[in-house]
Amino acid sequence: MKDYFSMDDTSRAFQNKKLISFLIDKNYGYVRHAIMLLSLLLILFNAKSINDYSGSYEQYSLLVYYSVIVFLVYVNIYLLVPVFFFKGMYLAYLTVLMVLLALVLSIMFSMMEKYFEPHRILERHPISLTRTIISGIVFFVPFIMVSTTIKLVQRWIKDNERISELKNITLRMELNGLKNQINPHFLFNMLNNVNTLVRVNPQKASLVILKLSDFLRYQLYDNDEEYTSLSAELDFLSNFLNLEKIRRDDFTFDIDVNHGDRTILLPPNLFTTFVENAVKHSADATGGHSYVHLLIVADEHRLHFRCINSIVSEIDLRPQMAKGGMGLANIKRRLELLYANNYHLTSETSAKEHVVNLIIPI
């Protein structure tokens, strides 16, 4: 009995997945549009009273109604809903929709009055254009509302999938981070440096211990929240770079920040992967000077992050990047899920420097 229910649940889940795929997958776009156009035609054919006009003018009138419905439905789902409804401008959406309906229907009924009325079979009582437009709005609005509902369902499904995928990728990043954040080699070098500094410079050793403590505390506890402050993120990056500077005498860094006095919140560890890669690939096996420069500039709507690191001129001496680049691949996918298409990420490599530019909304 247990296996039966398990198979039944699996079958239902598979069917639901196929239905969701059909509703939002671009590969089924033409099929969805064909079904919608055919459904509109069948509904209109059954809803509109027939034999209003003589001869072929009956079919012409049906074609006019159908063309207007298709025009209004597609303008609604591809222009009005994305531009107004999805942005919370509901009053503007209704206003523009009503104005568009009145304008289109006035043109349609005026045209039919001129070209179709001479061919009407049954006489009708004279009706003002205003009443005709109002009755037309009542007739056409259900078609538009159904198209709006379909668009909302698609948006809801896509948003749920994005949220689910974001949670999954965040979990994977956290698991990968837990495996890498307390790097034994890194801690070993740090503790060795502290051991040396305790004898040579106790004050500096105490400072290193405090920075190492802050670094580990942020990695273990402070980045569990959905959002963290930019200042906390910069403190963490500063601690990380300071610890690297202690390990490497030939290494320098600077962090230039310009965001005013306001508090900016952003997802934790958004810049960490870029800085870790910059530190790793700035290392010079010959002992030459290496550096990392960070620039953060924010205005009212966007934040610009730039990371510049030195690279070794000789290709053979450069540190090898890990195969697959999972860290960068994860951060790119995370950016897509967090900001959709509303972010900009570029990287450039010259003979001596590698530059990463990231612009995100805030």
Account of the 3D structure:
The structure is a single chain. The protein has three domains: 2-162, no CATH class; 183-222; 227-362, Heat Shock Protein 90, CATH 3.30.565.10. The strands form two sheets. Strands 2-4-5-7-6 form a five-stranded mixed beta sheet, with helices on one face. It has a two-stranded antiparallel ribbon with strand order 1-3. The chain has helices at 2-24, 29-47, 57-85, 90-115, 129-181, 184-200, 202-222, 230-247, 272-282, 326-339; strands at 228-229, 251-258, 265-266, 290-298, 302-310, 344-349, 353-361. The protein is an alpha+beta fold and 362 residues long.
Total domains = 3
What is the N-to-C order of secondary-structure elements (H for helix, E for strand)?
HHHHHHHEHEEHEEHEE
Count of alpha/pi helices: 10
> What spatial order of strands do you see in the largest sheet?
2-4-5-7-6
Percentage of residues in strands: 5-15%
Structural class comes to alpha+beta
Question: Could you list some keywords that capture this structure?
Answer:
single chain, about 10% strand, 3 domains, about 350 residues, disordered N terminus, alpha+beta, Heat Shock Protein 90, five-stranded mixed beta sheet
Task: Walk me through the topology.
Blueprint: H1 2-24, H2 29-47, H3 57-85, H4 90-115, H5 129-181, H6 184-200, H7 202-222, E1 228-229, H8 230-247, E2 251-258, E3 265-266, H9 272-282, E4 290-298, E5 302-310, H10 326-339, E6 344-349, E7 353-361
